[in-house]
Design a protein that fits this description.
The protein is an alpha+beta fold and about 150 residues long. The chain has one domain: Hotdog Thioesterase (Thiol Ester Dehydrase, Chain A, Roll), CATH 3.10.129. It is built from two helices and six strands; from the N terminus they run H-E-E-H-E-E-E-E. A hairpin with a 2-residue loop joins strand 4 (about 110-120) and strand 5. The mean pLDDT is about 95.
Amino acid sequence: MTIELPLDHEAIKELLPHRYPFLMVDRITEFKEGEYLKGYKNVSGNEEFFNGHFPGKAIMPGVMITEALAQISATLGFLTTGNRAKDGYLYLFAGIDKVRFKRQVVPGDQLILESTLITSRRGIFKFETKATVDGKICCSAEILCAERKA
């Protein structure tokens, strides 16, 4: 599949079912069908989760970083299979392994999100992912997603 990069916020919403405040991908910058996808999230101090995590010391929750990695992986899956959320398909978070957090993510950071497809069998996709800021790893994980018709 040939796509014109970068994919902006509106194009991403054509692929993923997520919407504000839960859409965690702002732009797709690199794509190789069936192999690799790279994009980013601009982390703003206006994010809802910063109201409580933590007052006076805003740190992006690890679960939100892993959600961003799952969304970038689902985007790779959608672009590879050609299926779309608008056609009734979802990528459901099925598992996460080998998760490691190495650095905090704070307002003003640009969170670079990368996903590489490891395997795909019968609608189950396994991805190797990482999130970085300024070239330093913040989080890495293996993510399992199940593509299902809603």
